[in-house]
Amino acid sequence: MPTFEEIRSCQSFNNNIEAAATTNQEHEVEVFDYAKRAQWLRAAVLGANDGLLSTASLMMGVGAVRKDSKTMILTGIAGLVAGACSMAIGEYVSVYSQYDIELSQMKRDKMTKNNVLADHDKESLPSPLQAAAASAVAFAIGAVIPLLGAAFIRDYMVRLTVVLGVVSLALIGFGALGSLLGGAPMLKSSLRVLVGGWLAMGITFGLTKLIGGSGL
């Protein structure tokens, strides 16, 4: 028959195991939450980078054939609105598909265990509306940058130079932030994003200039 000390020792050992299990569960939740936040942040950075680059390329392309600031800014605004709506709709459809798949799997798991799916079980599922809103806002934030760069400058060459400079700095910043979130080398990532942005703006500017100058 076990002594009182042995029983007490066993109880203490069990308590330690339970405490360790609880700590591990909390640590897993923290890691999971951090991973989810990192994914959302990375998606937001990519969305802002898309808004920045596509809007700047549109403005540079139109600026190749039209020198007035009004046309250039209106083109940027149209690109902002169209791009934000496109991003939101695309993200909504994509995340809703993911939501349906995960919900169906959750229902099958509950049926296997003879449990009923409760409302709080759905809290861990992705929100299509939140994803759509986040994508639209991130795209709009990036698209505003070249618009602000061109908004108050009337001289044509100065306006193009300022837009190119502002967008270049923003591309470096987004590249650096994306590398931090993704664990990639900061310098290489920033330069890759910058060179890619220059190529996109240069190709758009050159082709638009070529087509506009041909009289089509």
From TrEMBL:
Task: Identify the domain of life.
Answer: Eukaryota
What reaction gets catalysed by this protein?
A: Fe(2+)(in) = Fe(2+)(out)
Keyword field = Ion transport, Iron, Iron transport, Membrane, Transmembrane, Transmembrane helix, Transport, Vacuole
Among Pfam families, the record links this protein to: VIT1
* InterPro entries referenced in this protein's UniProt entry, alphabetically: Ccc1_fam
Q: Where are the transmembrane segments?
A: 72-90, 131-153, 160-181, 193-212
Q: Which GO terms describe its molecular function?
A: iron ion sequestering activity; iron ion transmembrane transporter activity; manganese ion transmembrane transporter activity
Q: Outline what the protein does.
A: Vacuolar Fe(2+) uptake transporter.
Which family does the record assign?
A: Belongs to the CCC1 family.
- Which protein, by its recorded name, is this? Vacuolar iron transporter
Question: What species does this protein belong to?
Answer: Theobroma cacao (Cacao)
Which gene holds the coding sequence for this protein?
LOC18607393
